[in-house]
Specification:
Blueprint (H helix, E strand, L loop, with lengths): L2 E4 L12 H16 L3 E4 L12 H15 L3 E5 L22 E4 L4 E6 L2 E6 L5 H4 L10 E5 L18 H7 L5 E5 L5 E3 L2 E3 L17 E2 L1
Parallel strand pairs: 1-2, 2-3, 3-4, 6-7, 7-8, 8-10
Antiparallel strand pairs: 1-11, 5-6, 9-10
């Protein structure tokens, strides 16, 4: 079992952001070469939430359908993926049999006989939406949330979900990986994957993706 985990691609059709599609090419080649089983994208597939151009939409569909012909893809809804929570723009990508776009409810995903993942799409009200959440059988938990005290790319401490709330109610010793914050870092048991490249002018963090 091999997983690649990345996040916060913030794809656009702006010429100055063309380098972001260079990463998609690299990702596609690595998935084929290393025979990856699953690609997890932990939210914020695009930068704008809606009203994407035909050029960008078709380019994303073409690239991700090509990847999905070689491995399974799981995309979490991030805060940049929607205006209306029930209708993220690229939800239709899951029309491909190997793509799951996790939009409204937490989903358990069985990778193989020994590996179970729990996918938590972005929510503005996690305390309510996760009230019946059972994480006990998950080996990995993937989410897209800001944890209180996380550091942004400009060095500021962010407000967000209480780490103590997560630890008390949901942490069972498994690994937690999150999108949303672009700078790779750890907040307690939650590890931010980070963006695979610099997204904003002035970013200086070490970009990455994760291979499991």
């Amino acid at each position: 079992m091999k997983l690649i985990v990345t996040s916060d691609l913030h794809l656009t059709d702006k010429p100055e952001d063309e380098y972001r599609f260079d990463f998609i090419k690299y990702l596609t080649n690595m998935i084929i070469k290393r025979k990856i089983d699953y690609l997890f994208i932990l939210g914020d597939l695009t930068d704008e939430k809606d009203r994407h151009s035909a050029k960008l939409t078709n380019r994303i569909v073409s690239n991700f359908f090509c990847i999905a012909d070689n491995c399974n893809i799981v995309i979490l809804k991030g805060n940049h993926d929607y205006y209306t929570p029930e209708w993220p723009f690229f939800y239709f990508l899951q029309e491909h049999e190997n793509i799951d776009f996790i939009s409204n409810s937490p989903i358990h995903i069985k990778i193989d006989e020994n590996t179970n993942c729990l996918a938590l799409p972005h929510t503005r009200t996690p305390e309510t939406d996760w009230k019946d959440l059972d994480t006990s059988k998950a080996d990995y938990v993937f989410l897209h949330q800001t944890i209180e005290g996380s550091q942004s790319s400009n060095g500021f401490k962010l407000n967000g979900l209480s780490l103590n709330f997560l630890k008390t109610k949901y942490h069972n010793g498994q690994k937690w990986f999150s999108g949303d914050v672009h700078v790779p870092q750890k907040r307690g048991f939650v590890e931010y994957v980070g963006s695979p490249y610099h997204v904003h002018f002035g970013d200086n963090f070490k970009a990455r993706h994760i291979l499991i």
